[in-house]
Design brief:
301 residues, mainly alpha, hpI Integrase, Chain A, three-stranded antiparallel β-sheet, CB, DNA recombination, Tyrosine_recombinase_XerCD
């Protein structure tokens, strides 16, 4: 007789943490990630996290370092454990023992306008070309692209409605005429193939009732980059980086770009000033000015 496996019962501590997160309207994905990181801490301890000591916290973080856990994962674990200790367990003394290593901030990879054109042209089909076109043409995050619905495209106001983007915030993104035409091409093709449902996902996945997965979009970008002969490391987020950088090089005000990207802090958007090469090239070096003065000339540019 076959034994059907059953799910492990939810412990009172986990349920309390879930309730605490729900009361604060934290997203389902964040809740899932927090529980996963707390579960890893419990597995290391070999007992319930509510019995942890300051030395246990220290040993766990040393264990992560010694086993080469990435800094982004360590940072996410710290966020989860801080919530557990500060909110659920009311043990801020343990929370203060957590060490968050600051990652050096790397400049994002950015494609040239020509490379973006080649990438879109090499996309595997009109659906992916339209989806990647949205990522670049409106500067959307890959999860925002994946969860677009047909009703989010407002062709009268030329806007794309983003519901519950990062931080569960709604915002409007730009809809250019060329992007609208690309989306219409996909709309007509999707209707012909009967894969677009009324009020359904703009980019359905393998099942028409589910949205396309971010993994599918990532795979499509990688395939397109290889087909286009682009040697840079490319992901869907590269198109968002390129959108911001190209707008900055067109002298669009950085505060406007901040709104379009949905950034909470201007300093996050300001990172793109470091990769806007056309802007950098347009600046006259003080050495050029000095040499021009010495030669009695006015520097060009």
């Amino acid at each position: 007789m076959a034994i059907v496996p059953t799910e492990r019962p939810v412990t009172p501590l986990r349920q309390r943490m879930l309730d605490d997160m729900a009361m604060r309207s934290m997203g389902a994905r964040t809740q899932h990630d927090y529980i996963r990181h707390v579960r890893a801490f419990a597995a290391f301890l070999g007992r319930s996290p509510d019995t942890a000591s300051a030395e246990d916290v220290r040993r766990f973080q040393l264990h992560q370092r010694e086993h080469g856990i990435g800094e982004s994962t360590i940072g996410a674990t710290v966020s989860a454990l801080r919530f557990l200790f500060d909110v659920t367990l009311e043990r801020p003394d343990l929370s203060r023992k957590l060490v968050l290593a600051h990652r050096p901030r790397k400049l994002p990879d950015v494609l040239s306008v020509d490379e973006v054109a080649r990438l879109l042209e090499a996309a595997p089909g009109i659906k992916y070309r339209a989806a990647l076109g949205v990522a670049y043409g409106a500067g959307l995050r890959v999860s925002e692209v994946a969860h677009l619905k047909a009703d989010d495209i407002d062709s009268k106001r030329m806007l794309i409605r983003i519901e519950e983007g990062k931080g569960r915030k709604d915002r409007d993104a730009m809809l250019s005429p060329q992007l609208l035409e690309l989306l219409r091409l996909w709309w007509r093709e999707g209707k012909r193939r009967s894969v677009l449902l009324p009020h359904g996902w703009l980019f359905p996945g393998r099942s028409y009732t589910d949205p396309i997965s971010t993994r599918q979009l990532h795979r499509a970008v990688c395939e397109a980059a290889e087909a286009a002969g682009i040697r840079k490391r490319v992901s869907p987020h590269t198109l968002r980086h390129s959108f911001a950088t190209h707008l900055l090089e067109q002298d669009v005000d950085i505060r406007v770009i901040q709104v379009l990207l949905g950034h909470r802090k201007l300093e996050t958007t300001a990172l793109y000033t470091k990769v806007a090469t056309r802007t950098i090239r347009a600046v006259t070096s003080p050495l050029d000015r000095l040499m021009a003065l010495m030669e009695g000339k006015t520097p060009a540019g």
